[in-house]
# Entry
Amino acid sequence: MPRAKSKRRQQAGHLLMVPVDWLEERSGLVGGLKYFLFRKVPRDSNWFHTLGSATLTAFIVQTVTGVVLAFYYKPSPDEAYASIQFITNDLTLGWLVRGMHRWGASVFIILLFLHMGRVFLFGAYKYPRELNWLLGVGLLVLAMLEGFTGYLLPWDQTAYWATVVGINLNATAPFLGPFLSDFLRGGQEIGTETLSRFYSMHMLLIPGGLIGLIVLHLYLVIRLGVTSPPWSDEAAGRERAEVVTAKRGLVEPRPRGDGSVPSPSEGTLTGEGPR
Amino acid sequence: MVELLPEGEKVVSNEQERAYFKRYKEDVRERGKPFFPYAMFHDTVMSLVVVCVIVALTCVWYFTSGEEAGDAGILGPRYADEADPGTTSFVPRPDWYFYFLFYLLRIFKWPDSVILGTVGIPTIALILLLVLPFIDRRRERRILRRPVAVVAALLVIASMGILTYKGATAKESLAGENVELVDEWAQVQGLSEEGIEGATLFAQIGCLNCHTYLGAGTPNLGAPDLSEIGASGQTAEEFSAYVANPAEFGNNVMPSYESQGEEVLRLLGIFLEESKGEGGG
Amino acid sequence: MADELERPGETPEHEDAEAHLPSPTIWPFGFAGAVALILLGLIISFWATAFGIALAVVFGFLWIRQVTREVRGEPEPLEAPAPGAAEEPVEEPEEAEGYTRSKFLEGATLGLGAAIGAIVTVPVLGFAVAPAFVDQGYPDVDIGPLENYPEEEWQIVTFTSNADKGAVSRRTAFVRNNGLKDQVPSFTIISNRCVHLGCPTQPQGPPGELRDIETSQTPVTLSATTPSGFGCPCHGGAYDIEGNRVAGPPVRALDRYEFSIIDGSLWLGSPYSVSEVEGEGADAVIVKYRPADPGVHVDGPEQVFYPIVP
# Structure
């Protein structure tokens, strides 16, 4: 009885919706998520636009692996190196988690630069998205600081001496430099205090800032939308409203005919290019 | 008081800009595609690639390296030796994405300019990045019509690339790094036992601070290349005597190495005599 | 009763139309506090428990009295006036422009918020920043009996500069015994930290055998060397035998250590910074400054950038 079956399925569907409706009624979160998912983006957005979300993915990988690494890592000069060796060589899958954190950091930075390059080439930092560019630069700086503070944690020779140089770089800044370097070291010399404060900054302070900025960054992306590629013939916001026949692929749906726009099959490319 | 803005006009953006954004919003609303699943499909594929790359890098890094400290695979060792604040042989290098800064510091070779490399240029670069949207206020977004921006971008990419490459390959003619070259020298030159000992001393006592040898050393001080010095026919004893007191042979630029002791000088002489160049071995 | 059960939809006649609510009371709070005190007393002191039991009895009695008042037929105390009535006297009359109630509340909220911020931020910031600037000083270090330092010979000495801190404080110095100068022993003791950005400089000479020697503090590692100068592996700084810069970016000469001789042993004192050294060995004239971070100019026009060094 196909009919009865579909009815049962309908009922099951309703039952499934109960917690969703409950949540929506009390928080409005479901509506927000729906808006986020089904909001319109320019039809010519393409693979270049995936760099931002790829960066976010790399950041999430860093967060997850970092939290787990903190279970086993010991931020003290006497134990740090041994705990890193233990994580890498003895713990089940420790090498994978530590390796993902280590290489994820590099991938994260590369993607940040690529994403930034994309935004630059597309001119996507222009009105009204200037503020989001500033947030992005802030994210880049914080990410570099994450790299700098995280590099010390294995407490091996490379880590130690790179940090010596990094801290002394700050010391050469005029006026405030010597104070800044004392603050970073937690004293006159690199020691126990340095490692624990780098750990705290790497674990709590900077990631907190990163997460806050990422939320703002995403909020502005959703609010302002993403720019079309500048070479696109049908770039959103271009000066004319002609409709263009374009090839349709898996990820380029037909526009929803709501009457206000001529069907694309009727449209033709005319006039000057986009501006 | 001059009124800069019309009454009630406090927003910096001009009418054209706002009109553009209004058109953009309309275009997207009318003809855009829903983010899910159309754009998100791309995003998800890309994210999968990212995660796979991270895991792949990890696997290559782990499975080609060994448990020993410094036992490097294709992607470097799992860890270096434990930090030793008292070392005199370690050669510090930063993580790769700081190589450009590292090499920038090497470029500023004068005490008076140190501050440029350490805080000056990085600060200027950061400020330029921050004010970019306020400098470039034209609405033009097509790449070929933004020649200044594109040239600037290419210059930045090129200079970052070069700095990073130079940083990655930077070498110092110091004992710690030069000694590692001795094996190669022994092969090329066909050195004897004592010649290898002499080569090790040659690498350690600072000869390469001024001279070059088979591509190693400091070329910018004008001291002669010693890769084929042995081909000149001088004997080991003559070389020893020369190194002990160059002034005696009319060389007032090179300092005396007599303080190194006779044994060191003898081995150095043997090494120099055996250095006949790649063809001479 | 049975009837009522059969007609669940109807309200039983004897109940009021409105739900019955007990009048407001504070006694349960006292009772709860007393119970908490009893539990706390079990951990800390019998007397606290006894006192808690007494309180619980008193508050419990008062509570029960209050709850049963209605049943016992006592009159309810007069309730507070209805909310609307209560606020009437407080309500703002049309006040003269200037200082209104909302302005006061605005100011008060901002002020209180600032006070909370200050109470939290000042100690936290102070705690994060201040300890870094407390002068921790440099303890003297015994680097072994004088016999280990033959005249006119360089030794690379690796020592623990602060025994309490352990391996983190390992440092290296290049030490040369200059013999006697005017009947006073003279030593050249140069720190191996590059004054460009703090990398470990290397002596330009063949390293000798490593020897561990016992001292009155932690053991020290020595190796003899015959350097022609010192070089930095990071950014190409080069120094001569007295630590003067000869090439590269270092902003001053290598730092040095004070020294003293106690019971036939050489002791290192505080480090200090040097702008330049004239002369050699025992005759050297050293232009001395208090210790500064690497990269910080101690002389020349650039020192205006670093007016105060912590």
Remarks:
- The longest helix of chain C spans residues 101-129.
- The CA atoms of residues 162 and 169 of chain C lie 6 Å apart.
- The helical segments of chain C are 2-6, 27-44, 46-67, 69-72, 83-87, 101-129.
- The two ends of chain C are 88 Å apart (CA to CA).
